[in-house]
User: Fold Anaphase-promoting complex subunit 4 WD40 domain-containing protein from Amphimedon queenslandica.
Amino acid sequence: MESGDRDKIVGLSKNGCMALWDGKDGTCLKTVNNLGNGMHYGIKV
Assistant:
């Protein structure tokens, strides 16, 4: 696995949240808000 391609950080325009997307299958590993909490799991669309 390439350390640079493993995870991608994508900024969401909603509430300034950020999401960590797995570069392999596009699965959302977790989302965190600007306070660093509020984790969620889902699928990248």
Remarks:
- The chain has one domain: 7-43.
- The mean pLDDT is 49.
- The longest strand covers residues 27-32.
